[in-house]
Design a protein that fits this description.
Elements (H helix, E strand, L loop, with lengths): L12 H11 L16 E3 L2 E3 L3 E3 L15 H11 L5 E8 L11 E2 L5 H19 L6 E7 L23 E3 L4 E2 L9 H20 L4 E4 L6 H6 L12 H4 L1 H14 L4 E7 L6 E3 L6 E3 L23 H13 L1 E7 L7 H4 L16 H18 L5 E3 L9 H10 L5 E4 L1 H5 L3 H8 L13 H7 L19 H13 L2
Parallel strand pairs: 3-4, 3-15, 4-5, 4-6, 6-9, 9-10, 10-13, 13-14, 14-15
Antiparallel strand pairs: 1-2, 7-8, 11-12
Helix pairs in contact: 2-3, 4-7
């Protein structure tokens, strides 16, 4: 598939270095890959290298939340790919918590099929590399909150984002002014749901469980719920009550055998919308005061303020979290923050900044977290746009002590064996790398399917998704 490039036109690593210097950024690139191939300790376990795969769902499970054929295929490909940290995809803790109709769900009814998929993944790794002793596989537990597909479940009223939080997605009707926030009673009950889900994941052999606090889903919104009333809102203590409680309850129930992790936002950013004239992303509304985002400078948005994110991560470490995955932004209202891209999805805006600026933001904020917590393994994000130079940037960050693990999400859908190629060849192949053109996201947004959702994957690099994308395009055109 021919791809028209807008920003990434570098013929070699030196041209990329020149662009970085021209933009005045601090990104470094190493030529030799060594540090990333060394083992990394995580709690009482060890990953065989510092390369990982971020949680990447394919919206391809059965309606009741069991892994589908494509789900199992994706996990098996990750198992044979050489990355020793496989961060399993978003898995809803309740049916009502799902972000789409085909999201993975963990329950007593589905846990057997998830266990089978985990065993397939481990068997694939063992058959390829001879052992499973050096691979860590985790499950990401999620409640989609504002973005639950059945109905929004919001932690607080957000004057900007509420206007694009849809109660009726087909008719594009937003939530009304009197729409309720989730109650304290609901959150109390939900704590125990998380504990039960974590216990199921532990019982079937996952090495770690991620308590997801990123990308504007429910637990991320709770961190930002400064205007919420009650015991889960307002003060930092109240806003961290939910995560503190579930960590404590899981440890009481299970002990320390299960590694607890969290993928969390250190910077939510502000909402962007498409400029009708240019198509470029522009702030939806610039408020003088912005008490609606975690890691956002209230007095000077959209600047970041790392005070509370740093405080949270130190707290999580003290509570027993053994692995932190740093992320930022929302895929729904500022996707250029979380995943720098060449081209936006069909419903998105053109990037308002050079993608390298977004990559640099990820690296700078992650560096602050890792250097503040040298004994806590931090997983870095924001690499996929760099294409075949992912590992060159990751190697520099790892050598400099700015991150412990380097992982890719979109990049792994395109190139699940990037780690194995790096180990064998000293680097990644351009012809297999993600090109950040957002077809995977476009498929996630494609709902005109009898199952309520098209499966998502890499259209340019994985041949089975090109015909799926064509069907989705045709369905959209016929609506």
């Amino acid at each position: 598939m021919a791809i028209k490039r807008k920003h990434f036109r570098y013929r070699d690593i030196d041209e990329l270095r020149a662009e970085i210097e021209k933009l005045g950024l601090s990104i470094r690139l190493e030529d030799r890959i060594e540090k990333l191939l060394e083992p990394v300790s995580v709690g009482h376990k060890t990953a065989g290298n510092a390369l990982g795969i971020h949680p990447m769902e394919g919206c391809d499970c059965t309606a009741d939340g069991r892994p589908g054929e494509l789900t199992i295929r994706r996990w098996e490909r990750f198992g044979t790919g050489g990355s020793k940290l496989i961060w399993g995809e978003a898995t809803a803790v309740l049916d009502e918590a799902k972000a789409n109709s085909r999201q993975l769900l963990i329950s007593k009814d589905t846990v057997g099929s998830i266990a089978s998929m985990l065993e397939i993944t481990r068997t694939a790794h063992r058959n390829t590399f001879g052992s499973n002793e050096e691979i860590l596989v985790g499950m990401q537990l999620t409640h989609s909150g504002r973005y639950c597909y059945q109905k929004p479940m919001i932690a607080f009223r957000h004057p900007v984002v509420d206007r694009i939080t849809l109660l009726d997605k087909k008719k594009k009707i937003p939530i009304p002014d009197d729409y309720p926030v989730v109650s304290d009673d609901y959150l109390e009950r939900l704590e125990d749901v998380y504990v039960a889900a974590a216990k199921l994941a532990w019982q079937i052999g996952f090495d770690f469980v991620d308590l997801k606090q990123c990308h504007s889903y429910l637990l991320n919104e709770l961190l930002a719920a400064k205007t919420r009333k009650g015991k889960y809102g307002g003060s930092f203590e109240n806003r961290t009550r939910f995560i503190r409680n579930i960590i404590g309850k899981i440890q009481t129930e299970i002990g320390n055998d299960l590694i607890l992790a969290s993928r969390l936002n250190v910077y939510d950013g502000i909402a962007y919308t498409q400029d009708v004239n240019t198509g470029i992303g522009t702030p939806s509304e610039m408020l003088e005061m912005y008490p609606y985002g975690f890691g956002v400078d209230e007095d000077n948005p959209p600047n970041s303020d790392m005070t509370e994110p740093k405080r949270l991560i130190k707290l999580l470490k003290e509570l027993g979290i053994g692995l932190v995955n740093v992320s930022m932004g929302s895929p729904y209202y500022n996707p250029h923050i979380g995943r720098p891209f060449e081209r936006p999805p069909i419903d998105g805006y053109e990037t308002p900044e050079h993608p390298l600026i977004g990559v640099d933001r990820h690296f700078r904020l992650t560096k602050q977290v890792q250097q503040d917590n040298p004994d806590l393994p931090i997983v870095g994000t924001g690499y996929s746009w760099l294409q075949n130079y992912v590992v060159n940037a990751g190697e520099a960050n790892a050598r400099d002590g700015h991150v412990r693990f380097v992982a890719v999400g979109r990049g792994a859908l395109a190139y699940p064996d990037f780690a194995e190629d790096t180990a064998k060849n000293g680097g990644m192949l351009k012809k297999k790398s993600c090109v950040a053109v957002s077809y995977c996201t476009a498929l996630m947004r494609a709902k005109a399917n009898p199952l309520g959702q098209y499966p998502a994957g890499c259209v340019p690099r994985d041949k089975i998704y090109a015909p799926i994308y064509k069907k989705a395009e045709k369905a959209l055109a016929n609506k």
